[in-house]
Amino acid sequence: MTNSEATPTTTCLVELLGPAQAAELADEIRAVYRTAFSVSATRWDKSELGITAFENDIFPRHLAREGFGMTTARNDAGKLVGFCYGYIGEHGQYWTDYVAARIHPSLEKAWLGGHFEIAELAVESEERGKGLGRALLSTLLDSRGEDRVALQTLEKDSSALPLYESLGFTPFGEFENYVVLGQRRGTSAA
Ligand SMILES: CC(C)(COP(=O)(O)OP(=O)(O)OC[C@H]1O[C@@H](n2cnc3c(N)ncnc32)[C@H](O)[C@@H]1OP(=O)(O)O)[C@@H](O)C(=O)NCCC(=O)NCCS
After folding, report:
1. Number of domains in the chain
2. Containing H/E element for 139?
């Protein structure tokens, strides 16, 4: 779908990848996911079970979804220190159906189905606060043509929520400690 495009940040290189290139990086992606989501400083505090599920089931399944796209960030030493990815969300997929069951049908109709779904955004703890999360997400979004983007984060997360809101995401659902946010894009943006 896409060739790599490299964007230098202050200390890291952000690249845009398609599914075949992302699949080749599976081991590095898993390593970043493991450290980014298991450190106690974040509220996610994923269990070993959750991390293993990402490694063995969730990431391979997401890789195969239509419209998969990813951005990665490498530091000066070439080490992968962050990534963001998404795909086209549709009814019949776990997250779309999970959210649809918890919001008003009018919101479901407005936001879900054919949207670009941001599934993961992670930056290793020692590289945070340098603009990498913003660069990873913005570069990925700039590459997309869908008219709606949707994602989910923890309601009280102190870092991800302000980032999403600063990029124009607004909440369209709140449940079970989570907030679901959407961004409208293109000519009819609200
Ligand atoms: C969320 C995460 C990706 C942010 O990455 P990052 O590289 O630190 O983010 P950036 O440096 O690009 O900061 C972007 C914005 O996020 C917000 N932000 C980042 N760190 C913050 C903090 N400690 N407190 C409050 N807001 C913060 C700010 O709005 C910031 O905007 P600014 O550039 O105007 O200051 C990173 O903290 C992370 O990987 N966390 C663990 C995994 C996670 O929670 N992923 C999101 C799941 S929905």
Report:
1. 1
2. helix 132-142
Q: What does the block give as tokens for 1? A: 């779908």
Integer Cα distance of 30 and 63 in angstroms: 13
Q: 55: which DSSP letter?
A: I
List, in order, residues 6 or more apart from 114 with CB less than 8 Å away.
88, 89, 90, 146, 148
Distance 163 CA to ligand 1 centre (A): 6
pTM confidence score: 0.91
| 1 within a domain of the structure (yes/no) | no
76 burial via Cβ count (<10 Å: 0-12, 13-18, 19+): exposed
Q: Whose CA is nearest to atom 31 of ligand 1?
A: 163
Nearest CA to ligand 1 atom 12: 131
Whether residue 189 lies inside any domain: the answer is: no
pLDDT tens per residue, range 64-110: 999 999 999 999 999 999 999 999 999 999 999 999 999 999 999 99
**CATH code of the domain containing 111:** 3.40.630.30
Q: Is 190 helix (H, G, I), strand (E, B) or coil?
A: coil
CA of 92 to the centre of ligand 1 (A): 31
Residue 111 lies in a domain: yes
Lowest mean pLDDT among 41-50, 135-144, 158-167: 41-50
- Ligand 1 centroid – CA 162 distance (Å): 8
Distance between CA atoms of residues 136 and 142, nearest Å: 10
